[in-house]
Amino acid sequence: MTGDDGDAYLVLGVARGASAAEIRRAFRRLALRLHPDRAGVASTEAFQRVARAYARLSTPAARAEHDTRAAAPSRPTVRATPARPAVAVIARLAAPLRALVDRGVARERPDGVVELLLSREEAVAGGHAALGIPLRVSCPTCGGCAARDQVWCVRCEYEGNVLDEVTALLAIPAGVRDGATFTVRLDEAGGPAPLRVCLRVA
């Protein structure tokens, strides 16, 4: 495995613009190959590097912090391309979806569409909502390889998948209008149905 422990993208072997699904797949592939239970004790350090890199890229907030730190040069450099701007997350809209509904910041309509309630100031400024959504994903401990009568996993036992909270980052354009509706795709093709989000400006 190549790459500096300081750059999570290099450790996982993915591009900076990789999707959450691509990052998850890269982690699973490396974790399956390097897990000490499979590769031996000598692979522990390499496995821990991969786990730390995935932790830095697995949520929008952690990824934005990593990107901001990586973009800050320690010495003067010449950039061929502009640095990616940090993601501006609207703090009031960064929580598990169930918590946002309980706080009255979001509503679930009978047709399955989620309404997010924005203030006029939030609608004018724009930003990002970080919605925590429960989703069945491959087990990060075994990489999804657990199966009955083959491989047992301490986390998922024989399932190969777990119910986890996946953070969907929704970009809200500045000056968004009341009733604007967006589709958030939660995973690659064949995954769960996309989430429909309608923005309501109060």
Structural summary, described in words:
The chain is an alpha/beta fold. It is built from seven helices and seven strands; from the N terminus they run αααααβαββαββββ. It has helices spanning 8-12, 20-34, 36-39, 44-57, 60-71, 97-102, 120-125, and strands spanning 89-96, 106-108, 114-118, 127-138, 161-172, 181-184, 195-201. A hairpin with a 5-residue loop joins strand 2 and strand 3. Helix 2 runs antiparallel to helix 4. The longest helix has 15 residues, at 20-34. The termini are far apart.
Layout of helices and strands, plus pairs?
Blueprint (H helix, E strand, L loop, with lengths): L7 H5 L7 H15 L1 H4 L4 H14 L2 H12 L17 E8 H6 L3 E3 L5 E5 L1 H6 L1 E12 L22 E12 L8 E4 L10 E7 L1
Parallel strand pairs: 1-4, 3-7
Antiparallel strand pairs: 2-3, 4-5, 6-7
Helix pairs in contact: 2-4
- What strand line-up does the widest sheet have? 2-3-7-6
The averaged pLDDT comes out at 81
Q: Count of DSSP helices? A: 7
Rg estimate, integer Å? 19 Å
Order of helices and strands: HHHHHEHEEHEEEE
Helix content: 25-40%
What's the N-to-C terminus distance?
Answer: 51 Å
Low-confidence stretches: 74-84
**Largest pleated sheet:** 4 strands, mixed
β-strand amount: 25-35%
* Class of secondary structure makeup: alpha/beta
Number of strand segments: 7
Q: Report the principal-axis shape.
A: globular
